TrEMBL record:
UniProt cross-references to Pfam families, sorted A to Z: ADK
Species the sequence originates in: Buddleja alternifolia
Tagged with keyword Acetylation: no
Keywords from the UniProt entry: Kinase, Nucleotide-binding, Transferase
Catalytic activity: AMP + ATP = 2 ADP
Name of protein: adenylate kinase
Length: 289
């Protein structure tokens, strides 16, 4: 943790003067320190993560629980051929493995709190190492970074091109989390909530139809243990407390794309592609399937 704290301190101080202070080489200096989550993250990333011709996208998705980060990140990952890495999935995988961390993690997750930066970076590093071993390049991160420290550490080890901040009206978020279902067999994500919010105060009506499972998944649906009303409210509160500095971090670097979801997937997906200048992408029809 000492190295993380030192890096955090150096990055925070530097942000006021030289934003480029937290470079790969400054992290390399830190590699001489005892093994740390930060060093693991750095070495798990491609050797040259800096922007360059031909390099795949390195994007992050920000947004409240239930906003649809997973849905849109997965679609973009299909479209662009880069891995979609959701830190929530990594945490759930760790929980289901019943390894040494699982009881500690399950207590934190089921209270709607964030797990430590060090543990989440360690899980992410392992996933990125796998990606690297498979020859995958680029990534779309979903659910990371969630704290300013995570954003600073990530920026210190690689270049993030874009942070897409998905936004949805508050009334829809809780309903969407409570309607979320997962197929225990194929891992498919569905939503049984039908959201229909009347237009008022200048806001248009918002209609989001359910995303129902195919017949073969219907009897295998499960609900996440942290998708109860009480835990969802806590997660929204934690998100609202932590998100502003992360958004500001990317805004001040000119990397933040704010995107207000206008409704369900049929309305939102083409508009998101347009906002990302991907609307004439030749594969978009199949990716949306
Ligand atoms: N970047 C992260 N930092 C800390 N904890 C995380 C992070 N990503 C996921 N988690 C943990 O995993 C839980 C589930 O994450 P996720 O599936 O992304 O949920 P959400 O639907 O709230 O966005 C979070 O509530 C948190 O406990």
């Amino acid at each position: 943790m000492a190295v993380l704290n030192r890096l955090f301190f150096r990055c925070t101080r530097a942000a006021a003067s030289t934003p480029a202070f937290c470079t790969k080489s400054s992290l390399n200096d830190l590699h001489t320190a005892p093994s740390s989550a930060t060093a693991a993250l750095s070495s798990a990333l491609p050797i040259d993560g800096s922007k360059g011709k031909g390099r795949n996208v390195q994007w992050v998705f920000l947004g409240c629980p239930g906003v649809g980060k997973g849905t849109y990140a997965a679609r973009l990952s299909n479209l662009l051929g880069v891995p979609h890495i959701a830190t929530g999935d990594l945490v759930r995988h760790e929980l289901s493995s019943h390894g040494p961390l699982s009881s500690q993690l399950s207590e934190i997750v089921n209270q709607g709190k964030l797990i430590s930066d060090e543990i989440i970076i360690d899980l992410l590093s392992k996933r990125l190492e796998d990606a690297r071993a498979k020859g995958e390049t680029g990534f779309i991160l979903d659910g990371f970074p969630r704290t300013l420290r995570q954003a600073e550490i990530l920026e210190g080890v690689t270049d993030i091109d874009l942070a897409i901040n998905l936004k949805l009206r508050e009334e829809a978020l809780i309903a969407k989390c409570l309607g979320r279902r997962l197929c225990s067999e194929c891992g498919g994500n569905y939503n049984v909530a039908c959201i229909d919010i009347e237009g008022e105060d200048g806001n248009p009506r918002m209609y989001m139809p359910p995303l129902l499972p195919p017949p073969q998944c219907e009897s295998k649906l499960i609900t996440r243990s942290d998708d109860t009303e009480e835990v969802v409210k806590k997660r929204l509160q934690v998100y609202n407390e932590m998100s502003q500095p992360v958004e500001e971090f990317y805004r001040s670097r000119g990397k933040l794309l704010e995107f207000d979801l206008p409704g369900g997937i049929p309305e939102s997906w083409p508009k998101l592609l347009q906002a990302l200048n991907l609307d004439d992408h030749e594969d978009k029809k199949t990716a949306a399937a």
